Automatic annotation (TrEMBL):
One of its GO terms (molecular function) is hydrolase activity. It holds the Pfam family Abhydrolase_1. This is Pimeloyl-ACP methyl ester carboxylesterase. Keywords: Hydrolase. GO terms for cellular component: membrane. The keyword Hydrolase applies. InterPro entries: AB_hydrolase_1, AB_hydrolase_fold, AB_hydrolase_sf. Residues 32-137 form the AB hydrolase-1 domain. SUPFAM superfamilies: alpha/beta-Hydrolases. It comes from the Bacteria. It comes from Nocardioides ginsengisegetis. PANTHER family: AB HYDROLASE SUPERFAMILY PROTEIN YCLE, MONOACYLGLYCEROL LIPASE.
Length: 285
């Protein structure tokens, strides 16, 4: 089934300036789903899933968070944090005129989705959380990304050289995931260092107490044999949230190379969120 696809942009204001964010819409209607990418990856990584969900009648939006993809990439670490990215998702919903959405993502996108549920619970119809980065991933995350931050800050020519090598490769002539890898390597030293710095020295995810208070239904997907995104973190998160369902992927690559089972689980979950009655907004006393 073919679905419409449209590229859009909007602007966010902060104490540090005005930045442009870019997104893609798939399909139409009022059953909104927002998908968020992994760290340093482009929103296009979720194109196959977005098309599959839109074919089921959902209105899907993929967003390049600040510092990623085709959105602006300032080199100031002060503009990058989980809270800032969550506020950008809420600003996207405001821009689209979407009262609520199922919000989901992979890795960084998973953690940002949790932040949105804490920051604006009345805007979250449900959560699709793949590969969250929580307690069991700290050491592996530091080992993986600290050298990248060091190289971007003190050996910037290494990041620039990769960009010069990968950018000329036509994305239409390589397999889809090879193109995503090339896009991920298309970085600028200043923004890479700033993004990783902002993650390392801010809070990585909501606290366990805050996660236990999330009332939105959630689909949590964990991967076996993934040191940066251990399945133990996903299982722990599913156990914390009162309305969560845990799904174990068959491999770290299942949703990328054989996505039918997990696409179906995500579609059924998102459609179920929109078929259930709208939660009443809590009013403080």
């Amino acid at each position: 089934m073919l679905v419409s696809e449209r590229i859009g942009q909007f602007f966010v204001e902060s104490d540090y300036g005005r930045d442009r964010l870019e997104y893609t819409e798939y399909g139409s209607g009022d059953a909104w789903v927002v998908l968020l990418h992994g760290q340093l990856m482009p929103r296009r990584m979720h194109q196959p899933l977005a098309r599959a969900l839109a074919a089921e009648g959902l209105h899907v939006v993929t967003l390049d968070l600040l510092g990623h993809g085709r959105s602006d990439r300032p080199a100031d670490p002060l503009v990058y944090s989980m809270t800032d990215w969550a506020e950008q998702v809420v600003a996207l919903l405001d821009h689209l005129g979407a009262p609520q959405a199922v919000v989901g993502g992979t890795s960084l996108g998973a953690n940002v989705s949790l932040e949105v549920a804490v920051l604006a619970p009345d805007r979250v119809r449900g959560l699709i959380v793949e590969m969250p980065v929580l307690n069991n991933a700290v050491e592996a995350g530091i080992l993986a990304f600290a050298p990248l931050m060091f190289a971007a800050r003190f050996l910037p020519f290494t990041v620039t050289a990769l960009r010069l090598l990968t950018r000329p490769v036509p994305r239409g002539f390589v397999p889809f995931w090879a193109g995503i890898a090339l896009d991920t390597l298309d970085q600028r030293p200043g923004s890479v260092a700033a993004v990783v710095h902002g993650i390392f020295f801010g809070r990585v995810a909501p606290s366990s107490r805050q996660r236990r208070a999330i009332q939105a239904p959630a689909l949590v997907v964990g991967h076996p044999a993934d040191p940066i995104h251990p399945a133990a973190d996903a299982a722990m998160l599913a156990g914390e949230m009162p309305r969560a369902t845990f799904v174990r992927a068959r491999s770290i690559l299942e949703w990328r190379v054989a996505p039918e089972r997990l696409n179906r689980a995500a579609a059924e979950f998102a459609l179920g969120c929109w078929k259930s009655p709208r939660r009443a907004r809590r009013v403080g006393g």
